[in-house]
């Protein structure tokens, strides 16, 4: 408060009108207080609106100056509110994201592009940059599959959209986007891309196009805009992309020039920041331009120019009643289904966690994770040690959902739980499951990662908004994903009935 009062008083004392008079070869500048007779007479002579004036109190009295300070403090408050009212955008269909267990335990969003518009259900990842859609397909995932349930997909066609433009190798956009691993053969040829992902033998390749992306402005998303963006026309997909991982496209939310948040920030539509919320029930939210809140925790982003990612420095772990000083760098990646830790960190976390668990550890190589624990017959709740990462700067990153529940195929009852982390030779990745229960803010402008426990429903709506206000809502290429609700169980901090996880343990996009 002292700092604020000093600023307000300075603003009050020096807010004045300047009269300039030329005297010989020099300028003479006279300062007059805004409430002086000189300023009042000048304003009246210019026909200007009457100035606010502290008329209720005698000039020079204590009450007179209190009234001035109250007035200027109100102006400051209004100014601060205007500065804070930055534009937030989300996808026109909705800002809601859905975690699909059957589609790789990744978060998906409905994204609308083209003229006429088409909607695609794309996987979201902060571990890569390019946004691509199955397009002019020569090798793509099927449009329907028993694995998709009742979801029906479509593909993007450059010929079907009147606003689609192919990016050539000679285009400045192709150079700006660093060609994304493509191979240009001539200035007029298509600006190609080819990206290999961490999942074995999984890739996407094709060429870059520009088309309009539909966005909703504000927390309600009622103001729909169109903005041109560059994305990949994915003609060839391989590996997991031909099955149940991102079958309808992938949106990279990374730092490079080719990512959608970078393009939106460069256009001046948003501040260079966005947030993702991960709810316990599998729903979530994505908001471009969101800088978070003043009460969130933060830590610096460690960004390597040669390999830019959302890395943070971990300087220790708190596991139950044990505190470590283990330090490592971790990538925060919403495109990793589960958290991955390098062997040394993995062993330390799992050993300390297991030592504080009361249930018996299960030794079964067929289970999806190495550290699993058996529930006794009739057990209705489970208590496990809390896990927190101590980040650079001292903020605690809380892991609110470190376990998955094992469900009996015979009677669909909980029979055990696992610590949902995977070992790696060298990688440290904070994945989707360790982000659950948080709103995570990727503030690239300030180079900080922010987070706050959040249920994703507190202030935002998941209403579906039409793209054309004068017409009905567009028919999406994929049916709207059904809401996911947690199974009713007395076990705290559990997820819904767990399907076979083994096919998805290595997902990292």
Automatic annotation (TrEMBL):
PROSITE patterns assigned: PEPTIDASE_A1
Domain of life: Eukaryota
One Pfam family in the UniProt entry: TAXi_C
GO biological process: proteolysis
InterPro entries (alphabetical): Aspartic_peptidase_A1 (IPR001461), PEPTIDASE_A1 (IPR033121), Peptidase_aspartic_dom_sf (IPR021109), TAXi_C (IPR032799), TAXi_N (IPR032861)
GO function term, MF aspect, one: aspartic-type endopeptidase activity
Signal peptide bounds: 1-24
UniProt feature, compositional bias: Polar residues: 487-499
Swiss-Prot/TrEMBL keywords: Signal
SUPFAM superfamilies from the UniProt entry: Acid proteases
Coiled coil location: none
Entry keyword annotation includes Glycoprotein: no
Location of region: Disordered: 467-501
Similarity comment text for this entry: Belongs to the peptidase A1 family.
Protein name stated in the entry: Peptidase A1 domain-containing protein
Protein's organism: Rhynchospora tenuis
């Amino acid at each position: 408060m002292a700092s604020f009062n000093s600023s307000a008083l300075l603003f009050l004392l020096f807010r004045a009108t300047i009269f300039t008079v030329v005297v010989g070869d020099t300028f003479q500048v006279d300062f007059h207080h805004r409430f002086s007779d000189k300023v009042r007479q000048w304003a009246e002579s210019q026909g200007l609106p009457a100035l606010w004036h502290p008329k209720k109190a005698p000039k020079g009295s204590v009450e007179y100056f209190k009234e001035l300070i109250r007035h200027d403090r109100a102006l400051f408050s209004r100014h601060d509110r205007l500065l804070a009212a930055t534009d937030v955008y989300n996808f026109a269909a909705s800002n809601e994201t859905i975690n699909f267990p059957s589609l790789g335990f990744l978060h998906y969003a409905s994204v609308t592009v083209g003229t006429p518009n088409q909607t695609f259900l794309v996987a979201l990842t902060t571990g890569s940059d390019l946004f691509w859609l199955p397009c002019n397909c020569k090798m793509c995932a099927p449009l329907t599959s028993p694995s998709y349930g009742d979801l029906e997909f479509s593909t993007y066609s450059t010929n079907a959209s009147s606003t689609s433009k192919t990016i050539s190798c000679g285009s400045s956009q192709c150079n700006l986007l660093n060609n994304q691993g493509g191979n240009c053969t001539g200035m007029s040829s298509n600006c190609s891309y080819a990206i290999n992902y961490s999942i074995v033998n999984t890739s996407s390749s094709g060429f870059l196009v520009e088309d309009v992306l539909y966005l909703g402005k504000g927390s309600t998303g009622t103001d729909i805009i169109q903005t041109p963006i560059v994305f990949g026309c994915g003609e060839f997909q391989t590996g997991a992309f031909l099955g149940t991982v991102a079958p309808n496209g992938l949106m990279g939310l990374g730092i490079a020039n080719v990512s959608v948040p970078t393009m939106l920030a460069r256009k001046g539509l948003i501040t260079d920041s966005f947030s993702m919320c991960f709810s316990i029930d599998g729903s979530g939210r994505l908001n471009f331009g969101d800088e978070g809140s003043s009460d969130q925790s933060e830590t610096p982003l460690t960004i390597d120019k040669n390999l830019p990612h959302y890395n943070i420095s971990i300087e220790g772990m708190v596991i139950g009643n044990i505190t470590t000083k283990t330090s490592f760098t971790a990538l925060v990646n919403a495109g990793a289904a589960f958290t991955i830790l390098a062997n040394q960190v993995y062993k330390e976390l799992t050993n300390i966690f297991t030592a504080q668990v009361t249930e018996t550890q299960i030794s079964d190589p067929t289970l999806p994770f190495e550290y699993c624990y058996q529930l006794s017959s009739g057990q209705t709740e489970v208590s496990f040690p809390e896990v927190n990462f101590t980040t650079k700067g001292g903020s605690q990153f809380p892991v609110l959902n470190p376990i998955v529940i094992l469900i009996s195929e015979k009677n669909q009852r909980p029979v055990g739980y696992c610590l949902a982390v995977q070992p790696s030779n060298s990688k440290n990745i904070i994945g989707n499951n360790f982000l659950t229960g948080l709103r995570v803010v990727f503030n690239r402008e300030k180079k900080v990662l922010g987070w706050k426990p959040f249920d994703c429903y507190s202030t935002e709506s998941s209403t579906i908004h039409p793209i054309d206000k004068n017409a009905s809502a567009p028919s999406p290429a994929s049916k709207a994903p059904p809401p996911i609700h947690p199974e009713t169980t007395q076990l705290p901090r559990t997820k819904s009935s767990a399907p076979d996880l083994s096919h998805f343990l290595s997902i990292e996009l």
